[in-house]
Amino acid sequence: MYRRKIIVLPSETACTNEMKIHALLNRLQDTAGMAVGGTEGAPAELMRRGYGWVLLKYDLEVLTRLPGMNESLIIETRHTAGDGFHILRAFRVFREADEAETLVLAKTSWVLIDLAAGHPVRAAQHLPEVFADVSGDPPIDGEFTAIPRLSGARLRDEPVLGETAFPVRFHDLDANGHVNNAVYFEWAWEATPLDPAGWSVREMHAEFRVSAKLGETVVVRVKALPANGGTRAFVYDMAEEGRDAARPLARFSSVWVPLGEWL
Fold first, then answer.
1. Which residue from 82, 126, 146, 179 puts its CA 20 to 30 A from 112's CA?
2. Please, which residues have CB within 8 angstroms of residue 119's CB and are 6 or more apart in sequence?
3. What is the longest distance spanned by two Cα atoms in the chain?
4. Contact 62, 201 (CB under 8 A)
5. What's the fold here for domain 162-258?
6. Would you write out the chain's pLDDT as a tens digit for each of its 263 residues?
């Protein structure tokens, strides 16, 4: 278990006074890197050894609200070797002044890639220092939220509410040359057919298949799920422009509530 204190900076805050989704996710990922600092799993050391992490799944749940400007927070994270190839990492975000009030929970699934060979390897064998002292941490549930297919039986007859194109920019890339995972969340956020000044995200779920590349254009298609009370829910496919939309790079879902309300 690792904990880190942060303060939400003005540059990380949207006009709604909520922390921007990409800023939150980047803070979580930075904390994960710090949690393994000084070991063979530290980001710079990992690159030197010829390994890279590939994100497979992400569940994000906002339990009460997103953090606000200048708020002092604690990010808590833990990880486990999972089933050998799939590594799980979980996060909890709470106010420094009140540990009992959890603001955000997140859970991720990763595989470690040998970059030269181009295939996944067992992380616990190749990075034993990273997993040497995690046995005492609480377990992490390996089940992730299922995301319906846009072309599946549940949504096949629903209209596409929008198709938004996003070019992959140089500053979208991480140190491995892949599009940073927070960028995909930002694309889903921007493609959501709601007024972002009037709605707040409650859940976002992601499945990643293939990384987008610099110079490509990613098209995000979105459909709505049936409304549940005052919430709105959407499903997204992200595919390279001009390619088969039935084979997306990533798939997302989200749930939203009116800003200032919590159902």
1. 146
2. 113
3. 52
4. yes
5. Thiol Ester Dehydrase; Chain A (3.10.129)
6. 899 999 999 999 999 899 999 999 999 999 999 988 878 888 888 888 888 889 999 999 999 999 999 999 999 999 987 667 889 999 999 999 999 899 999 999 999 888 888 888 888 888 888 887 777 788 899 899 999 999 887 898 899 999 999 999 999 998 878 899 999 999 999 999 999 888 999 999 999 998 899 999 999 999 999 878 889 999 999 999 987 666 799 999 999 999 876 54
Q: Tally the residues of the chain.
A: 263
Q: What's the whole-model pTM score?
A: 0.92
Structure tokens at 87: 């590594």
Q: State the span(s) of the chain assigned CATH 3.10.129.10.
A: 2-131, 162-258
What's the rounded Cα separation, in Å, for the pair 134 and 111?
17
How far lies 119's CA from each of 41, 65, 125, in Å? 18, 39, 15
Of 207, 198, 202, the closest CA to residue 255 belongs to 202
CATH superfamily of 2-131: Hotdog Thioesterase (3.10.129.10)
- 81: tokens are 């070797």
Amino acid 263: pLDDT? 45
Cβ–Cβ under 8 Å, residues 82 and 95? no
C-alpha distances out from residue 20 to 34, 35, 118, Å: 21, 23, 34
Question: What's 64's DSSP letter?
Answer: S
For residues 155 and 146, the answer to whether their CB atoms sit within 8 Å is no
Q: How far apart are CA 56 and CA 72, in angstroms?
A: 30
| Token couple for 21 | 């989704």
Cα gap 219→240, rounded to integer Å = 6
